[in-house]
Amino acid sequence: MSTKMPAGQIHGRESFISNISSRLGRKGPAAHEPEHPFRGAPQFYKDIQRSTEEKITLFSEVWTGLTGKVLVVEEAEAKEKIGAWLQEVAKELNVTQVSRWEHEGLKALGLDEALAEAGIGVVPWLPIETEASAAEPAVEGGSNWAKRSELLRRTERCQLGIVWPDYAIANTSTLVLQCSAERGRSVSLLTDILFAVFRADQLVTRMGEAFARITEGKADAASYASSLNLITGPSRSADIENDLTIGIHGPGKVYAVIIK
Prior knowledge:
By secondary structure, the protein is α/β, with parallel strands linked by helices. The chain has helices at 13-23, 43-46, 52-65, 78-92, 104-108, 111-117, 131-135, 150-156, 186-189, 207-215, and strands at 69-73, 97-100, 121-124, 160-163, 167-169, 174-178, 193-199, 203-204, 228-231, 236-237, 245-246, 253-259.
């Protein structure tokens, strides 16, 4: 007959800690918890201040070091140059379908029109109501994947995804993406190629700055985005026999545009 351990009780804690202490060459567990006078990044690291130009240079160097490509443009020339570069990338990589966030900054650049000129279709991240889906009754049972939306089905067929990150971290060349109803994470996860556009004033030096801005003014969990994606270069996986593979769990090619 088995007996259940009472809920909320820990047994053998002292002997477990004592065993660890002895293996570390100590006489026994410490009588008091160690002090932690500092939290997070050291102060000297927090004190580092970089100019906008320095952050652009640092981000570009790290991003290209990860095999990404960068285009830095002046705001007055942004629409023309970004559209031309996007057409060039799409032609080089044989892109026929593009998915993009429903973002005012992206729409203002006229990227849909530039892609249309090249004969490339665009799927904005907006709900799609088709006659078939409207008439089709709700399916009970089966997997959620089998019941995925028409928008997700169309995004699966896109080779390139266009996003506008909330922030970009210069030290690590990391894109910070907060997802919402108009900014689906599938755009940056399902596509083979990621094309990110953002302004130079969205660059921060270190990750802690981005997190501070994300959490500012938020009182509870409901105030946060449904997900937060941190993208640093192309997807890299080495969990099978330590064999590095590019583009398995996300885009294998990444492009960044910085608007000054």
